[in-house]
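Lecture 7 notes: from sequence to structure.
We start with the chain below.
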Amino acid sequence: MKDITESAIRPGAGASGRRWRLRGGETTGSGDLLRHLARVRGVGEQEMLAWTAPSLRQSMPDPLVLADMDLGLQTVWDTIRKGDRLAIWSDYDCDGLTAAAVMVRFLRACGAGNPPVRIPDRAREGYGPNAEGLRALRDDGIRTVVVLDAGVQAHEALEAADAAGLEIVVIDHHAPGPDLPPARAVIDPKRHDDESGLDDLCAAGLAFVFCVGLAREMRRAGWFDGRKGRPASMPQSRLLGLLDIVALGTVADVVPLKDLNRAIVARGLEVLNAGGCPGLAALVLKAGLAGPVTASDLGWKLGPRINAAGRIGDPMTGLSLLLTEDPEEAAALAEELNQLNEQRQAIEAHVSEAAMASVLPRQTNRSPVIALVEDAHEGVIGISAGRLRKELHAPALVLSGSEDGFLKGSARSVEGFDIGHAVLDAKAAGILVRGGGHRMAAGMTLKRDMLDRFRMFLEDRIIDSTFFREGEFLDIDLFLEPGEVNEALLQVFAALEPTGAGNPPARLALSHVVMPEPVLLKEKHLKFSAGGIDILAWNAAGSDLGTFLSLRTGRAVELAGSLSINEFRGIRRIQMILDDARDATEPNL
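Predicted structure tokens for the same chain:
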């Protein structure tokens, strides 16, 4: 194996337009490969043991380090203790649904009732709590509402709830505005005064931390006494049994798999692979997963099926799957989610094609990509934005037009441009009616006649970004020739698991590959072999990458991608999922 700082990785661009870059920059000496992979992911020598064997016990914080956690716990505990009614308001995506499932499952296990869950209709009500829905809960006798994965920007709705006499506990992870909404507690690690350092937790992770804190409060108060339907104790195993659901929400919401998140996913996968809750066990079977479920499976196989309910169907289908204890009901719900996901894929393919054909004019190839698709299904525009981002390598927004004069949109960004903050600033400037999000994703509503102003706002904002100055990079971990790749190398790569956002799987570059003629699979994928390695380029037909590969037959190229084992009928072969390619014999700048 060559030195892992191989200088042959030139700072040039591949067929995708991304500049190849050695992850971690220049280093000295090859050293131990696993330590190198850890170091370039920000893991120091002192952290190696915890990183290679993530421990929930060591990573779990005291819940009270979160601002307002004490007030939130006291509010919910008082409601339970007094026998008043509690309800949950949750978002319709996978993170929101898993957060709700964690709360409901925990409260049921505690003998604290089976709280109703209110999930807004995506098309009719939109994101977050609304005044009408909260007042309806109060009219139904609810005293306290826990708002999950939403609420930190819902000033108007929570003001109405306060006026109606509701006590609100917000558990959110989205960026707040300058002021917090009126609530008994606003638990959000992105609060300006929060010093917990838990900014990377999603709503499901925060809900789990809340339940850990609530279990402690209830234990201290003597709640677990075996009377009136209450358990005699709350063993740690009951809390840990929620982690398969928490892990799903964590991966599906694409938060960094570092520290506590990584420990949650590692332990959650253990729970799931040991059986898991009936709903996820049924969904694993319906998704056709063989062998141990991985973090990648959570993100690419299970998460989309849960999300499909909130995108084009009834999100309660996804929540019901996560809550049921009946294997037969779980199987039926898993089948329904599977069918919804197939429908979602067809709708999304149509919207993505229309979006690509309707991109608004751009000043540069690093300008934001904005596409307006009239009457596009709002449940899939976020996925379509992601496809535009991947295809054009720039922040992308897909807007859906309607007859009421408003546009609703979803955005996906690239490293170096914080789309969430840009959207919040556009809202503060009066350009957007509603808006919010994260560093890499956001949603917004605007008047149709504000579209040009919004486009110009983003054009101006991106000029000051790291992305605009430097472009998009493809990070490479090491550089090898095909003959140096073997299963022992893949075993080292496996130590990086669970991988995902913030802890990417190892990516290597293969050098001195003479390009064979690629074979077209299912009219959209390309496949060929290099030194005994099967190379797969998903959805490459007709793309810049696919065109590059097809025109390079017989020429020397370099291939970048991630490795895995494909086992079929007892035969094991190493395969690379291709990310990019470039010429090997001349600079490609």
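Points to note: The CA atoms of residues 39 and 46 lie 11 Å apart. The chain has three domains: 19-40+477-583, 59-242, 358-470.
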